């Protein structure tokens, strides 16, 4: 079985749909079906069960797909190692990034990266900072961009500090928060971020917010604040380009200093030896210098 056939099986397992898989592989459905039959004949068993709802892996199919993905991952690793020896930047840059950063800051950096290194590929995973750390530990990615103050024994580079703001259409002074009946709109986040806001709140106010609305996405939280539904506490990174009639009040600690979260670039030293990773670091330096 060659690598092309392994890739075909991997795509089928990802899509679980013949039409979508055929589109990704740039072949017709009949041609894909014929190739799958040939592969199943070679293995001597059915790998997928076909139905009008799509595809389902058989137990044997699960084993073969696991094998296929391992071989493809090894192939990618070998390619990266070979390409790292060459002068031009190739290979796949695998990044895990905190969702807020991935949505509001990283795209500008990646735009500069792909313009400068058009032959490089990008694989991006977003999630909470705890999930980012896990993906680095398990070697799923080369580098991670994480918020907060992570414990990390590998390479750790500070990127920027992002300050917190209370935003609202009506409230224009922090003391008005304890008097208002407007709802406090909160979004689900990693525990460290939530704890920072809770600590600030209890040091600043004697009571809890009178009304609370909890949403599952920071963008939903932001849009509700922009539409005057209530007030929210948001990172400055999410507030670039928002309407001028939205009041942005910086959160201050007991020393009257702005409260913010640090953003870090993490990775193992072996990853930073790869040309595509080292090139990304150089782009980051230029980007941060220009800001």
Short account of what is shown:
It contains ten helices and eleven strands. The protein is an alpha/beta fold and 291 residues long.
Number of helices: 10
Q: Please report which band the strand proportion falls in: under 5%, 5-15%, 15-25%, 25-35%, 35-45% or over 45%.
A: 15-25%
Instruction: Return residue spans where pLDDT drops below 50 for at least 5 consecutive residues.
Output: none
Number of strands: 11
Shape: globular
Distance between the termini: 51 Å
Give the helices and strands as they follow along the chain: HHHEEHEHHEHEEEHEHEEEH
Oligomer class: single chain
Overall pLDDT level? 90
Relative helix content: 40-55%
Counting helices, strands and paired strands, the structural category is alpha/beta
Radius of gyration from CA coordinates: 24 Å
Main sheet summary: 9 strands, mixed
What does the secondary structure layout of this molecule look like, with pairings?
Blueprint: H1 3-15, H2 18-25, H3 29-43, E1 48-51, E2 54-57, H4 59-83, E3 92-98, H5 99-104, H6 106-116, E4 121-127, H7 129-137, E5 143-147, E6 155-168, E7 184-187, H8 191-204, E8 212-215, H9 218-226, E9 231-235, E10 247-250, E11 260-267, H10 275-290
Parallel strand pairs: 3-4, 3-5, 7-8, 7-9
Antiparallel strand pairs: 1-2, 5-11, 6-9, 6-10, 6-11
């Amino acid at each position: 079985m060659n690598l092309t056939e392994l890739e075909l099986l991997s795509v089928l397992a990802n899509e679980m749909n013949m039409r979508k898989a055929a589109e990704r592989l740039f072949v017709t459905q009949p041609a894909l079906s014929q190739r799958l039959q040939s592969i199943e004949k070679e293995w001597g068993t059915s790998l997928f069960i076909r139905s009008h709802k799509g595809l389902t892996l058989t137990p044997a199919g699960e084993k073969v797909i696991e094998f296929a993905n391992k071989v493809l991952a090894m192939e990618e690793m070998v390619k990266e190692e070979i390409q790292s020896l060459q002068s031009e930047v190739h290979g796949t840059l695998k990044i895990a990034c905190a969702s807020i950063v991935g949505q509001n800051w990283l795209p500008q950096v990646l735009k500069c990266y792909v313009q400068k290194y058009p032959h490089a590929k990008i694989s991006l995973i977003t999630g909470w900072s705890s999930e980012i750390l896990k993906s680095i530990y398990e070697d799923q990615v080369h580098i991670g961009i994480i918020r907060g103050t992570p414990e990390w024994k590998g390479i750790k580079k500070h990127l920027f500090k992002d300050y917190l703001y209370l935003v609202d259409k009506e409230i224009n002074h922090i003391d008005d928060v304890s008097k208002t009946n407007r709802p406090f709109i909160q979004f689900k986040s990693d525990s460290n971020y939530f704890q920072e806001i809770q600590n600030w709140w209890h040091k600043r106010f004697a009571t809890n917010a009178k009304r609370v609305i909890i949403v599952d996405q920071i963008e939903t939280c932001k849009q509700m604040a922009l539409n005057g539904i209530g007030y929210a506490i948001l990172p400055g990174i999410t507030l670039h380009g928002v309407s001028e009639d939205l009041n942005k009040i910086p959160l201050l600690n007991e020393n009257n200093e702005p409260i913010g979260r640090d953003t870090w670039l993490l990775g193992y030293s072996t990853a930073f030896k790869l040309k595509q990773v080292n090139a990304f670091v150089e782009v980051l330096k230029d980007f941060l210098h220009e800001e």
